[in-house]
Please model this.
Amino acid sequence: DSKYRQNNLFERLLNLDSRNWQIRLPTEWEWQWMAQGGRESLLYPWGNILDKLYANTADAEIGLSIVGIYPKDKSNSGALDVIGNLQEWCFNNHDIQSISHPNQDVYSNKGKKSLRGASFFHKASKSKNTHREFNRYPNQAYNYYGFRVIIAPS
Model:
């Protein structure tokens, strides 16, 4: 994340002024809120019952796909491919505090980070909104890791 921010990559791609907009990875708390449908606390973006046909997981046996071909894998906020296709890096370090205290600044360029969601590599049984990948360092790359960004007023 620091290299993207250093080079203003997100701002240039989105044609936004970083003085007015905050462009970054979501914290785990923000990711969880988006995935569960806010206060609804859904287990999956589409409800509380698993359906293997609703997300791009290993059960689909297609590998990486373009965004949006699983319209049921959509959060109430409109985010697509929430628990399928790619696991997503989060902004904060991997520890319990970062989930339970959303306003606490637990970000640093050092340490292990969290990945949320499931990917085309994971079985549907691991695809709940609460799925949290074990500690990973940001320099570890796999073809089933990805990210989404948050854009908010500064």
